[in-house]
Amino acid sequence: MNNTIQEISLKELHPFKNHPFQVDDNEELRELARSIQENGVLTPAMVRPRVSGGYELISGHRRKSACEIAGLEVMPVIVRDLDDSEAVIIMVDSNQQREHLLPSEKAFAYKMKLDAIKKQGQRNDLTSAQVAPKLAAERIGDDSNISKDQVKRYIRLTHLIPQILQMVDDKVMAFGPAVKVSFLPKALQDILLEAMELYQCTPSLSQAMQLKAMNKAGNLDSGQIYEILSKAKGNQQDKVCISIDRLKQFFPKGYTPKQIEKSILKILEAWIEQRKSIKEIP
Fold this sequence. Notes:
By secondary structure, the chain is α/β, with parallel strands linked by helices. It has 4 domains: 1-82, Conserved hypothetical protein from pyrococcus furiosus pfu- 392566-001, ParB domain (Alpha-Beta Complex); 86-159, no CATH class; 160-236, no CATH class; 251-280. It is built from 13 helices and 5 strands. A 5-stranded mixed sheet has the order 1-5-3-4-2. Helix 3 (84-95) runs antiparallel to helix 4 (103-124) and helix 4 crosses helix 6.
C-alpha cells in the first residue's frame, strides 16, 4: 500500500460518485479555510485514479472545498488503487467520525457500505447471500458503535421520498415514525406528505405503526391516511410547523437548521425586549 504524499491540482480531484455526505458552505468550512491559509492542509486527502482521467476523492471533500475558498490550486493527497467496494468502505469510515451527521447522510452511507461489504463477501465466497446482510449490518454497527438493528433502521430511511427525509433531517419528523413510514409505497408517502401539510403535524409512533400495519394488510388508502393524521397528537395541537425550505430564503446560504433555529430565537428575544421597552414608555 503506497502512502506517498503527492501535490495534486484541485482541478484533477473529482467527488466520489454518489457521495452521501454534504459539504455545506458554512462557518465551519470557512474556519477550515482560514486554518489552511495559515497552516496548510495538515491531513492529506485520499484519492484513487479514474479511468477517465484525474482522481476520485475517497476522503477530503471538505478539505478540497476549503482549499478552493483559501485560493489554493493544489492539495496534498495519498493515491491508492482501490476497487469500488474498498473505496466505498474507506469513504464511509473516514467521514462517519464527523461531529454533525444528518440522518440522511448516515442512511445512505450505511446503505453504500452494506452493499460494498456484501459484494466483498460474494466475491470471496465467504458467506451465503442470506447470511451476508446480517454480517454486514453487524460489522457496520461495530464500526459505528451502534446496534445492527439501528443500522437497519437508518438504512430504511433511504426508502423515504426526499421531502419526508428532509423533514427527518430538519427534526420536524421524529426518527422512529419515519422508519415506519419508510415501509409505505412512495405513492402513499406522497399522500401522507399532503396530509401532514394540511394538518400541520407529523405522525406519532403509534400512528406510523398503524399506517405500516394497514399498508401491509392492503387496507391503506388516501382516506385512511387523512383520517389517521386528522387525529393530531396532543403535543402538536397548538404547534406551528414551517418548512425549512421556506425559512432558508431569509438566511445566508449554507446556514444549517440549527443555526436558523438559533437566529430565530434571538430575533424573537429581541422582539420581546422591544415590546417591553415600548410598554414601559410613559
